[in-house]
Each structure stands twice: as C-alpha cells, then as structure tokens.
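Notes for week 9. Today we move from apo structures to complexes. The key idea is that a small molecule is not decoration. When we ask for a structure prediction with FNR present, the ligand SMILES becomes part of the input, just like the chain. The input block below holds both the sequence and the ligand string. Read it once before you look at the output, and try to guess where the molecule might sit.
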Amino acid sequence: MNISDVERDALYKVIYARRDVRREFLDKPIADDVLARILSAGHHAPSVGFMQPWDFILVTEQATKQAIKQGFDLANAESAAQFSEDKRAAYQNIKLEGIVESPLGICVTCDRQRNGPVVIGRTIKPEMDLYSTVCAIQNMWLAARAENIGLGWVSIIHDQVLRDTLAIPDHIDIIGYLCLGYVSKFKSKPELEEFGWLPRENLERLIHKEKWSVKND
Ligand SMILES: Cc1cc2c(cc1C)N(C[C@H](O)[C@H](O)[C@H](O)COP(=O)(O)O)c1[nH]c(=O)[nH]c(=O)c1N2
C-alpha cells in the first residue's frame, strides 16, 4: 500500500499541530468510537519482541480525578522547591496539568513480565519495554490530535498516588497519566516556548555526520 501525497501531508500536519494541552479543555465527552480509535492507535504501536506490555486505565469519575489532582499539587510544590529562586516564580505560573478539567484521564502502564522473562530485543536492554509503552503514548497523542482532541501528559505526580488511587498492582510500572478532551483551541507553539521557558533547539545542531561532533556556540 502506497501513501498518497495528500495522506503524507496530513500526517505531517498532525505531527506539527500536536500540542501538550493543559488549559483549554471543554466539558464535552469523547464518544466511545473516537476513544476506541485512539486506544487502538496506541495498541498498534511498535513494541519490543511484539511484547505489547501496555494497559490503559480510563478515569472519568470526578472523585478519582480529585485524588490524582491532590497528588499533583503536592508533587508540584515539591518540584517548585527544586528550581532556583529566579526561576521558581515563573515555574509556579505555568499550568502543568488539566486533570480535573479534562473529561477523560488515561493512565498508561507497562507490564514488564508480559509474555515471559525472555523477550526478543530486550535481552540486552531490559528497559525496551518501557520505551515501547512510550511509543504507544505517542501514537495516542497523534491519533488524538487527528481527532481534534487535546492530550496532556502529567508526570508531576508520585507513582504511589496513582498506584493507590487506581489499584495498580506492584508488578506493573506506571508510564504516564494522560488528560484528554476537546479543546477551545490548539496553540501553534509549545506553551513552554511561548512562555519563554525554553526555545526549540536548532535541529542542525543535533545532527551529527558519521561520528559525534562537538558543536560550540
Ligand atoms: C514524558 C513527558 C512528560 C511530560 C511532558 C511531555 C513528555 C514527553 N509534558 C509536555 C511537555 O512540556 C511538552 O511536550 C513540551 O513542552 C513541548 O510542547 P508540545 O508537546 O509540542 O506542545 C508535560 N507537560 C506538563 O504540563 N506537565 C507534565 O507533567 C508534563 N510531563
């Protein structure tokens, strides 16, 4: 099957238009068939040895979201303390989650024991199962954008909060907590770039020809 030029352009459009969304969520539910497509996109990600180590916990209950948000608030205060004083005020002004406002949370986990202890491609680098699960999240992120649904990844929360709140067994790793929903708008640039936190790196400086090369400013 060949991809047509129009289809190729649509894919790049989605890649460049994808954003991490934290604040523009609308109170509009995601239809079951749309959610099924997003989850299926995740489930069709590449995985080491075809391990498919992921699970998806869907969170819609307000009480559950409130418990997760409380965990975020504590972790965020802890995080703020790690920044130097001059950056702390700016950090505290950035909204870094949309846990309660988004209609759907998805906790994506990794079962590191799935399909047995020896997995093709993971014998030397065992962390490959974790990376595979991140591939699933990226697929979901792009699929969500193609559905005009915003997705925000929240990592400022201790695993134990998610484990306790969502009854995740000890042998399951927590990879990401995602907030999904329709949005009033998608920003054209990353919020952290817009906010002056960091610029996008110059791609040319990140490309090395044949061997690693030190690039000075
Ligand atoms: C693994 C991981 C973890 C996080 C993120 C991303 C990824 C990949 N990002 C989103 C991140 O800030 C964002 O992707 C970049 O700023 C670039 O912006 P766009 O995604 O292009 O909009 C993110 N954003 C946020 O507001 N709170 C968070 O806890 C996190 N955590």
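Helices lie at 5-17, 32-43, 62-80, 85-93, 128-146, 159-166, 191-194, 203-206.
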